[in-house]
Amino acid sequence: MLTEERFVKILGILKQRGSVTVQQLMRELDASESTVRRDLNALDEAGELTKVHGGAVLRGGSFSTRDDNVISRKELHREEKILIAKYAAALVEPDDFIYLDAGTTTELVIDYLPSKNVTFVTNAVSHAKKLSEIGCRVYVLGGEFKLSTEAIVGDEAVASLEKYNFTKGFWGTNGVSITKGFSTPDMKEAMIKKKSMENCKECYVLCDASKFSQLSCVNFAPFQSATILTTGINPEIYRKYKNIVEVNT
User: Fold this and answer.
1) Res 58: pLDDT
2) The CATH number of 3-60 is which of 1.10.10.10, 3.90.249.10, 3.60.21.10, 2.40.440.10?
3) What's the pTM?
């Protein structure tokens, strides 16, 4: 059984029972004591559970059920967001066809674009305006307008994504979890993220260190499905994953 598969099974057992012993996990995973203890250490470091003497208990963790409005989020972790945005913008090449997700970090990418000879599709009205003002060609998804995130969502927007195939895409997230992947509080917004990522060749999730080991209501993509651009890897367990790029300058 692969490490990630064991992680999922351990967390599933904990959700059912609330606690589990090392001996129980050895039997149910058909794994050695050293393997089980190593898995528990890793999941404890990642904030997914709490290791106790002889086993583990379910950790409450940080769980977000709603989006804060854009204005309140713009100044949160702003310096980190700028570093991430600069790095992301440097990945943009002439003639790229890019999906740009709604969000405060993705919006900052526009300020540092090296080339204007790029076509964008976005579900953010504010992003579309800024891109148009600097001379980029931009298409806006049609659908329902969500005020708190200033994003276009809904079935119509998901359907309109069917016709696109993106060279690169940049997304925000409310939570990053090794076992649960990327998550966000709103079902409609999650469906937009999911469909646009499925239709993209190179996917990048932009998030500061506060988003790691956080969980929100709706998962929209597996952990390994995108390259994560961040300013800090915390907890340390995430350092072993090759799809995380730590941006320092």
Assistant:
1) 74
2) 1.10.10.10
3) 0.79
